[in-house]
Amino acid sequence: MARIAKRKLKEQHLRELYTQLADTVGTLTAAQADSFLSELLGPEEKIMIAKRLAIIVMINERYSLYRIAETLCVSSATAEKIKARHETGAYTHVVTLLQKNKKGYLSILQTIDSILHLGGILPHYGDTRLRL
């Protein structure tokens, strides 16, 4: 888990740094963004962000909290916390942007489907008869 220093930056400085980061990432191609994030983030941070994104997609697709926790190896408390934030609209922009990029959204669903299928939990995503 990433450690955050006890000494804190001023809120204005944090906003400026975040804006600079967002501007930088926003100008990159997909390949450049992959390299950039791979070098910038540690393994734990990559896992946390990827799982959070998958949880948001699974909640949006109405998977049960149990299925989310089991599939992504997260605690039920984590899944519940993200679901509560999702229900208050905290991830509206994330979901909207993902759904605008149908290829990316479907890619995330296919990855989730592979995890479920390879783990023997469910049949592939296209077979909705047994979807929870």
Low-confidence stretches: 127-132
Distance between the termini: 31 Å
- Look at the helices and sheets and give the structural class: mainly alpha
Overall strand count: 0
Taking all Cα atoms into account, the compactness measure Rg is 17 Å
Overall outline: globular
**What is the helix tally?**
7
- Let me know the largest β-sheet: none
Helicity range: 55-70%
Percentage of residues in strands: under 5%
Mean pLDDT figure: 85
Order of helices and strands: HHHHHHH
Describe this structure in words.
With 132 residues, the protein is mainly α. It has 7 helices and no strands. It has helices at 11-26, 30-40, 43-60, 65-72, 76-87, 92-100, 102-118. Helix 3 packs across helix 5 (76-87) and helix 4 (65-72) packs across helix 5. The protein is globular. The two termini are 31 Å apart.
List the SSEs and their pairings.
Blueprint: H1 11-26, H2 30-40, H3 43-60, H4 65-72, H5 76-87, H6 92-100, H7 102-118
Helix pairs in contact: 3-5, 4-5
